[in-house]
Amino acid sequence: MNIERLKEIREDRDLTQKDIAKVLGIRQQQYSKYELGINVIPLEKIYVLANFYNTSIDYLVSRTDESHPYPKSILNKK
Known about the structure:
Blueprint: H1 4-12, H2 17-24, H3 28-36, H4 43-53, H5 57-60
């Protein structure tokens, strides 16, 4: 996984690691390890970040350069 985008998107929004750690419910040190590639970020945390940044998981993990989220699935509409 390309972890550089995690840092890039955070810095583009003028957020600190501590800010994002708070969103994820973890300590700043743990989040730092995700950005450094020391620990793999769990899928559920990537999902939270995609929602927080209003982007797709594919964008966060560099599978696409299109930052806009995908349209909601008809399966997820309630």
